[in-house]
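Researcher: Before we compare anything, I want clean individual predictions. No alignment, no superposition, just each chain on its own. First chain goes here; please echo the sequence and then give the structure tokens.
Model: Echoing the first chain and its structure:
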Amino acid sequence: MQDNLNLEAFPLHQPESAAYDALVARCRRDLLETGMFNLDGFLRPEAAANEAARHAPKMARESFNHARRHNIYFTKEVPGLAPDHPALMLHDTSNNTLCADQLAGSMVAEIYRWPALTRFLAEVMDKPALYPMADPLAAFNVMSYGEGQALNWHFDRSEFTVTLLLQAPEAGGVFEYRTDLRSPSDPNYDGVAQLLRGEDPLLQRMSVVPGTLNVFRGVNTPHRVTQVQGDRARMIAVLTYYEQPGAMFTETEQRGFYGRTTY
């Protein structure tokens, strides 16, 4: 890990140190104030570039193209909301995905299973513990967004998402989000419609550099990645953890996200 991760700046391997305590405190503060935190350069730039280059040939040959037209909720309907309500506006999402079983022996796999990272994430998120998934497809993925591809507006189903950017595109591929647009007690459908019309003054944009670890609370914060432009794809690893061991996607979820199933 020492060769590939910037442990001088982010001493995840030294949980008893003052530097570690300061990092946890900073990340907790960022998470509370903005709904996310970033570790810029967590993966060293040359390591990120090497990992992206390693996966590019397999991405071209073996990846699953996940393309769908969806609303911000990823559901066909929302109880109590008219089908023509502007909050249910449809958008197109498209990316190519390599699953965990296609990434055996990769640096992404090693980072995903590194106990120090899991412990650190649990501490920042104030969880008793976090566990890698048992799902051989969904545990960790590498996703590629090429020319014209995008991840469109959505709310996450899970409480938080962990990503590691391996490669930035030439243009586009900007992460856009609107912090706490809804709450458990207020779905704020009119506010959602305003966002989708491009009229929300609190919309924020963020461009991250390759090697950045991002932890994002997206349950109530809608977000998207704009269309990628140019010949260089946006390539990102998605690392999924749960509070209980043994987590699996359902057969329907596996087939929907990856075009195949292990059931």
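Researcher: Okay. Second chain, same rules.
Model: Second chain and its structure:
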Amino acid sequence: MNFTNLNYFLVVAEEMNITRAANRLHISQQALSNHITKLEDEIGTQLFERNPGLSLTYAGARLVETSGQILDIHSQFLSEVKDLSGDIKGELTIGITYTRGQALLPLLLPAYRATHPNVNIRIEEANAVSLEDMLQHGAVDLILGFSPFFSPSAEVTELSADRLFLAVPVSIMEQLFGDECQKKREEFSEAVDITAFRNQPFILLKKGDRIRTIVDSYFKKHQIVPHVFCESANIQTAFALAKKGLGIAVYPEMFLRGETTLSAAMGTDEEMDYYPLGSSATTEHLAIAYNKDRYLPRAAQEFIDLAKNILQNVTGNVPRIPPEFQ
């Protein structure tokens, strides 16, 4: 089967209009019609009814349903053949959540590009549920996220633990503890007493977010109904508001280490302390997953190895507290 004809057929099936499809493909209408006719001749049946407008025949509708699988198998075969040559090149598609990419990709991609200059990177950003669906259907080669993954075909490699911290403006500590402030700051750097902030304003992620669900369970365990000053869908927004002294945010460890995240920015905002939530229930596990039912290109295999090496050995400074990072 001619795969160019098949790809062109799918575009026509999406547009149901030869003119629009030809414009998308940057070829003439006559050339596109010739490709469709050749595919119909090869298959031995008509794929489109052409009057008064285009519509799929039964055979055309079935080809739309199966062509994704045909093209995907072809793509996997080509990847495997390329790997046999020993020359690692092509494209690697990585799925990651919107904000997590800011912390992780600047850490991983420079090192990967240095050793794999002929691999082009495509980044797909979406929520965790959408990313797992992309992995299941071959739209991404790998996804970076948190275990557990729920896709039945996901093969998972854990990379590092990622604790949650309270990001607390020092002004709140001074207001709460007065002369005892420094003592409490040192004490909380080892294990924070969340009940001390029972009546303080919190800036939290919106309900339904993974971190918010973990934090809500943590509050419930300690019999706290937090005073929520405001909610945000973006963890960086929540942290930025905390840095202005408006309340306490919950922030992942990886963001505190990241050189490209807000915690690394210098400025005249509030001095902040970072206290670990001392519970295994507030520690997530960063992991990378691929679809075990699909061929995994060497470019993807070596990205997994690199990510594991970097993230299991990463060092950095949480800006002030806790001292074990300093």
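Researcher: What stands out in the second chain?
Model: Residues 13 and 145 are 35 Å apart (CA to CA). Additionally, The chain has twelve helices and eleven strands.
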